[in-house]
Amino acid sequence: MTDRLPVEAQLRSLDHKKLAAYCVALTERQFPNFVLFSKLVEFGDLKQLETVLDGIWQSLVPGGAKMNFEVQLDKVEANMPDLDNYEMYGATPALDAVVSLYSTLTCILEADVDEAIAVGNVSRECVAMFIEISEGDDQMSDEEIIRLISNHDLMLQEEEFQEEVVERLINVKQLDKAFIHELRTLARNEGVSNIGINDEDA
């Protein structure tokens, strides 16, 4: 693992297609957060977003199905929960998952490494907020909160996952069907999200 370099620097060395693969892998891992929220409050068009997610994966396989990504942007945006309408915490990680999907499409359309970096940051911040809300308290100093988040198993798993994805992408010469299948399996994490939510919990 070339962890001399932070993930952000490594992303800048990846080509357009590998950046898209990084984005969709992180989005896939966050997706159960949206699935659970969608089922609990009957929000959004889950099938539509699953179709977009599938289409992105398929587009990465040589000769795979092609999707009009520009058309999908509006569909994805329409499925972003408005946090002002929900008091429950679950709306926030659900929104993060949809924002990541939107940024993945933008990364594909614009070949923009900053969109990939944004997806990584959204996923990390989602984990950090979950840890702070579930285990932090008002008596803790900022330093204690930062320490809690940095050393927490969920954050360590998040960093490990992002590094693993980038390492696989750096080491593979070409994205073939077998590689994409393995990457998606890794990202699916047996249905458990970056904050430990299982989409079967609904």
What does this molecule look like?
The model has no long low-confidence stretch (mean pLDDT 95). 69% of the residues lie in helices and 0% in strands. The chain is globular. The chain has helices at 7-11, 16-41, 46-60, 69-77, 91-110, 113-135, 142-151, 153-171, 177-188. The relative contact order is 0.19.
Structure, briefly:
With 202 residues, the protein is mostly helical.
CATH-level-2 architecture: Up-down Bundle
Give the class-level CATH name.
Mainly Alpha
- Strand proportion: under 5%
**Silhouette:** globular
What is the gyration radius calculated from CA atoms?
Answer: 17 Å
- Mean pLDDT across residues: 95
Q: Report helical residue fraction.
A: 55-70%
Low-confidence stretches: none
CATH topology: YP_001051499.1 fold like
Overall tally of domains:
1
Strand-pairing-aware structural class: mainly alpha
Span between N and C termini? 37 Å
Specify the biggest β-sheet.
Answer: none
Elements, N to C (H/E)? HHHHHHHHH
- Fourth-level CATH superfamily: YP_001051499.1 domain like
Q: Specify the number of helices.
A: 9
- The counted number of beta strands is 0
